[in-house]
Design goal:
Blueprint (H helix, E strand, L loop, with lengths): L3 E8 L2 E7 L10 H8 L9 E9 L2 E8 L4 E2 L3 H13 L8 E5 L2 E7 L5 E6 L2 E2 L2 E2 L9 E9 L1 E8 L7 H9 L10 E6 L8 E7 L4 E3 L3 H14 L6 E4 L5 E9 L2 E10 L1 E8 L2
Parallel strand pairs: 2-3, 4-6, 12-13, 14-16
Antiparallel strand pairs: 1-2, 1-19, 3-4, 4-5, 6-7, 7-8, 8-18, 9-18, 10-11, 11-12, 13-14, 14-15, 16-17, 17-18
């Protein structure tokens, strides 16, 4: 059978097509081909493409592209999915492997639940207030930080009432986020003791709302811990309905021992004829 064998995975609703790098290379996937594969009507449909290539006995290179074909340094939910699939394909050990990303080396491991994993991120600068951005109605604070890629985090009264696309699109291109812009994450407290925080994301490269953002969740947790006194670890419910857990240690302007736990579930596998 001709075509490309693929694996479709979801990380809390953030969905990806993953390819075995022993059978293909990133050079075989120019931007238009990636966009066609990720198209939700004429392709497989995904927020991004991941190519997993074994590097040595315990390391796997994760090459990540957004659905528009642009290459991105890091994606937390893609890393969670990559960990589960790399173990399934025996590219790396389930108990602990290293993902080599464009944002650096990320230690990862599978959890006992067959659809969950966790990733250990390099030290992260604490997101800082973004006073140059004027808050809109219902917005209480705005922070800017980088967790693999740039993120704006907006603390709002209720994420359910936010027009994520209308508000997120101009912020995604705000000059304060740099030439490539930023993901825009809206978070709110559900007002119930012990309940998880809620998060919604406008994602660059997708140019619309996605159902989860792993590194954005990390940025949100660190901003809340550093500026609002919220205790870590901190649990978030993605807009896709799944839980993401962030734990870390705050040391001045840096977060160390940063872990993100979440879903990495294989949905189906198939052959793409494109």
């Amino acid at each position: 059978m001709k075509g490309t064998v693929f694996y479709k995975m979801t990380g809390s609703g953030n969905d990806f097509v993953l390819l075995d790098g022993r059978n293909t290379t990133p050079e075989q996937w120019p931007g238009p081909r990636i966009a066609a594969l990720c198209d939700r009507r004429d392709g497989i449909g995904a927020d991004g493409l991941v190519i997993l290539t074994p590097d040595d006995g315990e390391a796997v290179r994760m090459t990540f592209f957004n659905s528009d074909g642009s290459r991105a340094a890091m994606c937390g939910n893609a890393a969670l999915c990559s960990t589960r699939l790399a173990a399934h394909l025996e590219l790396g050990p389930c108990a602990g492997m290293r993902l080599l990303t464009d944002a650096g080396v990320v230690e990862t491991r599978c959890l006992e639940d067959p659809a969950r994993a966790e990733i250990h991120l390099p030290d992260v600068p604490i997101p800082k207030p973004a006073p140059q951005i004027r808050p809109g109605d219902g917005e209480r604070a705005i922070w800017l930080g980088t967790v693999g890629v740039p993120h704006l985090v907006l603390l709002v009264d209720d994420v359910a009432t936010v027009d994520v696309v209308e508000r997120g699109r101009p912020l995604r291109f705000d000059p304060s986020a740099g030439p490539d812009g930023a993901n825009v994450n809206f978070i709110s407290n559900p007002q119930k003791g012990g309940a998880p925080w809620l998060i919604r994301t406008f994602e660059r490269g997708v140019e619309g709302e996605t159902l989860a953002c792993g590194t954005g969740t990390v940025a949100a947790a660190l901003a809340l811990a550093a500026h609002c006194g919220t205790d870590l670890p901190l649990e978030f419910r993605s807009w896709g309905g799944q839980m993401l857990l962030v734990r870390a240690t705050i040391q001045g302007d840096i977060a160390t021992d940063v872990w993100l736990g979440g879903q990495g579930r294989l949905v189906f596998r198939g052959v793409w004829e494109g």
